[in-house]
Amino acid sequence: MTGITNIRELMSRNIRQSGILIALVALVALFTILNPSFLSPGNLTNIVLQYSYILILAIGMVIVIIGGHIDLSVGSVVALAGAVAAVLVVKNGMPWWVGVLAAIGVGLAVGVWQGFWVAYIGIPAFIVTLAGMLLFRGMTYQVLDNVSLSPFGGTYYQIANGFQNGLLGGYGYDALTLIVFGLAVAGYAFTQVRARQGALRYKQAVEAFPLFILKIVVVGAVVMWFGYQLATNRGLPNVLVILAILIIVYTVITQRSVFGRHVYAIGGNLPAAQLSGVKVKKVNFMIFVNMGLLSGIAGVVYSSRMNSAQPAAGNMFELDAIAACFIGGAAVTGGVGRVTGAMIGALIMAVMTNGMQLMGVPTSTQQIVKGLVLLLAVAFDVYNKRRAGAR
């Protein structure tokens, strides 16, 4: 009976984890059929450039959601961080790195502010960040004096618009890009093998070995194909390097660190975490400091991409980041979610938006589709929990 239960749990987990991958592949196939230029190297590069800041925000947001909270202020923080950077770099002529450090500093300060109210005063994160959404948007208007500042130019502009190309040469392609993607595939295969060995060591259910190998081969082939498309276009985007570093760092933090385990514990069962000696206030405080940090980084990337700071920048970014997390498998009640899942969820949002834009779908219809997809993703999560409870 135990073996049957383990198989059921494995199947349920695989459906949850693989379902979003299947959805992503299906979306890509659909938009490719409707518009063959969707998979062109130029458009794939544009998807990476245009939605990088949402991916960065989703990394922090999934940690917030796993901890049982929500953050509605990240779009306003992105705008404020970019505004401060623009005042220093564009208006006052300071070096680009001063703007970057200032923007990240703004994000950290916001994180400390909101973390204090949530963790130590005990105000729900929904209220604190709703207030923050209004507060930091108003501060953005004041910092910019209600006008846009541009252009950044120079190195700051290259942060989100530059490429690493031609460093190792190549015949019609950038060899460095292919090497980087090859190392990524090797790293993925290594971590999957280690995870499987760990599961077998503890006598946990795992998929059949042929299926395991097939999964690695398919993922590796798709990743290398994507890398080749970038390599034959403009090379490796700088922002993709930033994203890769953040994904690796935060995957390790959430899955391997004490802080990560405590976040899952708090979101999964707060009373049990308190009884187990978890320093709940400190962890909750750090969750929001981290979200502020990543919002500052996203502010740098977005302002660099736009080559300007605008009072209305970052509008609705928080909803895109939250949607990416829930579509990627995070649970509404907390305690469940992964950085990789949030990344896939963000890519689904990016693919939907880009594909509909190429088809000329009106913005109003795009919003309707996004809303329905988010609702269905949460409904799927609720359905899975009820089915698990019934067993």
TrEMBL record:
Keyword Acetylation: no
TM region positions: 20-38, 44-65, 72-90, 118-136, 171-190, 211-230, 236-253, 283-304, 367-383
Intracellular or extracellular location(s): Cell membrane
Pfam families: BPD_transp_2
Keywords: Cell inner membrane, Cell membrane, Membrane, Sugar transport, Transmembrane, Transmembrane helix, Transport
rRNA processing found in the keyword field: no
Superkingdom classification of source: Bacteria
InterPro entries tied to this protein: ABC_transp_permease (IPR001851)
Topology within the bilayer: Multi-pass membrane protein
Biological role stated in the UniProt entry: Part of the binding-protein-dependent transport system for D-xylose. Probably responsible for the translocation of the substrate across the membrane.
Protein name per its UniProtKB record: Xylose transport system permease protein XylH
Native organism: Oceanitalea stevensii
